[in-house]
Amino acid sequence: QVQLVESGGGLVQAGGSLSLACQASGRTVSAYAMGWFRQAPGKERELVSAISKSGGRTVYADSVKGRFAISRDNAKNMVYLQMNSLKPEDTAVYYCAADESGFCTGYGCFAARSRYEYWGQGTQVTVSS
Questions:
Q1: What pLDDT is attached to residue 105?
Q2: d(CA 72, CA 78)
Q3: Quick one: CA dihedral 97, 58, 84, 39, positive or negative?
């Protein structure tokens, strides 16, 4: 199994940028499709972005397209989420998650939380207006 630890969250003004990182250990991250989810207070956890095992396929929520970018470095066992042009509505706890089956191609498939066997503890992102 794999352990996931997120980092890089914090407080930023609207329009600013943050870069989140997810460090995997215990098993190579290349064995998993990876997703970044977020959960705001009182809301359901939603998929922000996901990336296939090889990195050749990425998907994004409509609300972050053009502003966020997901990437992975399998050699370093890392997955990243670059977040630009942040908005107050991006405020949430951000989680990375690992999907061992990795058979998804579309956003709807990647967005199913039940697909992901492993989750990190989350990192808080707060965007002030």
A1: 84
A2: 6
A3: negative
Q: Average pLDDT of 7-23? A: 98
Tens-place pLDDT, residues 75-125: 999 999 999 999 999 999 999 999 998 788 899 999 999 999 999 999 999
Signed CA dihedral, 52, 12, 94, 88: sign only = negative
Cα gap 86→90, rounded to integer Å: 6
Write down how long the chain is: 129
Average pLDDT rounded to a whole number, residues 2-9: 97
Question: Cα(83)–Cα(129) distance, rounded to whole angstroms?
Answer: 16
Phi, psi (degrees; rounded to nearest 5) at 113: -60, -30
89: three-class secondary structure by DSSP: helix
DSSP state, residue 16: -
Radius of gyration of the chain (CA): 13
